[in-house]
Amino acid sequence: MSDIKKIRDNFIIKIKENLDINQINQIKSELFGKNGLVSSQFKKLSSIAENERKQFASDLNNVKNELQNLIVKKIQDIEIKEINKKLEKEKIDVTLPERNFYRGKIHPVSQSIDEISSIFSEIGFSVEEGPDVENEYNNFTALNTPDNHPARDMHDTFYLDDNKELLLRTHTSPVQIRTMIKDKPPFKIIAPGRTYRSDSDQTHAPMFHQVEGLHIDENINMGHLKGCLNYFIKEFFEIDKIKMRFRPSHFPFTEPSAEVDIGYEIKDGKIVIGEGDKWLEILGCGMVHPNVLKNVKIDTKKYQGYAFGIGIDRLAMLKYGINDLRAFFECDYRWLNHFGFDPLDVPSNYRGLSR
Ligand code: PHE
């Protein structure tokens, strides 16, 4: 058997074996490299007798082409096999839940609004809403705060037109008006939402949150207001002992009016609610002024009641130990991750509000 035939038969078997890309490249250079087996045969060509040379060259070329084609084909096969292997490994079932699934968090203000709604709903309050963009009538005039009333200046109002008819509501009190115009008494509602004043520092943000309360019925008095707020504060802070004081104040839409402070102290740099001799103002309240009831056509001989407005952001700061209000609105993901709440833990009184 000629050398050429031997090389051919030998390598056809070798190429058929189960090879990886390095092994086939190795074979390729063994055959066609500078001193490869096939290349060396070509070098022999000149020493071959003339009458055999043509045949030799022809056989050699055939073997060279045959082996080259086999190698090219083999390389393609190996590559396809490797791609398939890789695809098999990286196969994903898009219908399966993602393993590193990350759930978002509930903002402390949203959490507090849910907690507040849960607490008041336990004692018969329903939730009302009003728009952030209000008219000046609902925000001021109907609330016994006529034009040129000094209280209007104190609110640092964002007006939306030159005539000062539209504005961003400066408190949630206009929802009292909307509710009382829409329905008939009695009323027992809360109205949480955003409010706006042109003010900004560590404890004031131009957008903040309030929850309004309104309870109108026959024979409602200041004692009901006190009992209601006392219950609320205890539930919200999840403590039994609470120090609370009603301080005489003034709002055009309530008479008498009061501001409520809660007692606290600082222990080891932390705020402790219900102890100590420091006071912190958290809400305004009072008996709804007869003028307000008249403005919404309610018989003041038959009905009266109380209203209150609580600053939600402040309560949330106190309860969750957050000392700068501005952090609430910076949308810092790391902050939210730390102070946020699990969306599946919906606050309710009987299960515990914030646990
Ligand atoms: N609207 C008042 C404020 O924003 C709070 C308040 C509400 C006072 C209801 C009395 C009754 O300051």
List strands and helices in order, with pairings:
Layout: H1 3-16, H2 21-32, H3 37-44, H4 50-89, H5 108-122, E1 126-127, E2 133-135, H6 136-139, H7 150-154, E3 166-168, H8 174-182, E4 187-196, E5 207-217, H9 222-237, E6 244-251, E7 254-267, E8 270-273, E9 278-288, H10 290-295, E10 304-311, H11 312-320, H12 333-339
Helix pairs in contact: 1-4, 2-4, 5-11
Bound molecules: phenylalanine (PHE).
The site of phenylalanine (PHE) has 10 residues, from strand 9 and strand 10.
Write a structural description.
There is one protein chain. The protein starts with a helix and ends in a 16-residue tail after the last helix. A hairpin with a 2-residue loop joins β7 (254-267) and β8 (270-273). The strands form 2 sheets. Strands 1, 4, 5, 6, 7, 8, 9 and 10 form an 8-stranded mixed sheet that branches. The protein has a two-stranded antiparallel ribbon with strand order 2-3. The radius of gyration is 42 Å and the shape is rod-shaped. 41% of the residues lie in helices and 21% in strands. The protein is built from 12 helices and 10 strands. It is an alpha+beta fold and 355 residues long. α2 runs antiparallel to α4. The chain folds into 2 domains: 2-90; 108-339, Bira Bifunctional Protein, Domain 2 (BirA Bifunctional Protein, domain 2, 2-Layer Sandwich). The chain has helices at residues 3-16, 21-32, 37-44, 50-89, 108-122, 136-139, 150-154, 174-182, 222-237, 290-295, 312-320, 333-339, and strands at 126-127, 133-135, 166-168, 187-196, 207-217, 244-251, 254-267, 270-273, 278-288, 304-311. Bound molecules: phenylalanine. Residues 171, 173, 251, 254, 284-286, 307-309 line the site of phenylalanine.
